[in-house]
Amino acid sequence: MQPIHNIYNQLATPQKVVITMHQKPDGDAMGSTLGLYHFLKQIGHTVTVISPTNWAHFLNWMPDVATVIDYENKQAIADEIIAAADIIFCLDFNTLSRTKRMEPVLSNTNATLVLIDHHREPQQNTFTFGISDTGKSSTCEMVYDFIMASPWQQLINNDIAQCLYAGVMTDTGSFRFPSTTASVHKMVAHLKELGLQHSTIHEALFDNGTENRLRFIGNVLSNRMQVFYEYNTALIAIPQADLIKFDIKTGDTEGLVNYPLSIEGIKFASIIIDRGEERKCSFRSKGAFDVNTFARTYFNGGGHYNAAGGATTDTLEKAVADFITAMKANREQLSTYTF
Ligand code: 5GP
Ligand code: MN
């Protein structure tokens, strides 16, 4: 993979560009792709953002989100656009499998593949240009760096600022995680100078839920959470019936995995949700417990040191039993609490 800055040359003449992200995009995936879209359009490129799947409704305030194509909904049109593309930017994921049904099309494309991502262990021999930096808070921060190091840095504007702020804010847990560096705060200061109304974005992302969702969270915390104090661990397991009963939509379960970390002493929090076709898992830790390795070892997944995910086709009961066995196997790392 050549350094990302080597793509600037090719961007000096108009290109047909596709920008894509991981399935079920979060604030960082949607914010980074749309931020890059607003930048590249101003240079004069033809730009299309394609999401592998649908996304949470609380992302729908982002400028030009209505132009984003949902691959599962409009595969024929998306395939045509991908086939004609000169450059495909891959944002906020490390392996093409994270694009679900788009994987075969991206594997076989003749377009130049460019990676901008902050997850561990990027797929080898896949991207011509790119940057993979696990030290970065978010892909949005990396898109900001990409814009500011380019010959077109003066094109950064409030549309771009809004999109990039959404991702840097959500991926840093509203600027609390250790990934929140001085550079992150400097970037946000610059975005504010461009006219960013940060409080409006917080409201759009976090104060936009339904009554059902809040009652669902109440039920989850009362009835679906187990705490294993001797392992400093908590597990939430949600049956599919709950999702149906409370009319839970894409994105409504986002952030739920973090709640148990607010219990004193808990350093490992997990959630397993029965989504019907599979049981989807999320893992979060504080301090010294590597959930990336845990997700890879036991749940066919991956991610970062303190935030990772995975999935299984086993039943929810089996997944919970396997989780407990895996937790017990990690007793040594879990039973001591160190920051
Ligand atoms: P979340 O728990 O929010 O879905 O994901 C947390 C982190 O783990 C994200 O950085 C995400 O990209 C990664 N992740 C989530 N699910 C999977 C998975 O099934 N496979 C891999 N490799 N990474 C995942
Ligand atoms: Mn991210």
UniProtKB/TrEMBL annotation:
Provide this UniProt record's keywords sorted from A to Z.
Answer: Hydrolase
Provide the DDH domain boundaries: 16-168
Documented EC number(s): 3.1.3.7
Coiled-coil regions, chain positions? none
Q: Which Pfam families match?
A: DHH (PF01368), DHHA1 (PF02272)
What are the recorded GO MF terms, alphabetically? 3'(2'),5'-bisphosphate nucleotidase activity
Ranges where the DHHA1 domain occurs? 245-328
Position of the signal peptide:
none
Stored PANTHER family: BIFUNCTIONAL OLIGORIBONUCLEASE AND PAP PHOSPHATASE NRNA
Question: What name goes with this protein?
Answer: Bifunctional oligoribonuclease/PAP phosphatase NrnA
Lineage start = Bacteria, Pseudomonadati, Bacteroidota, Chitinophagia, Chitinophagales
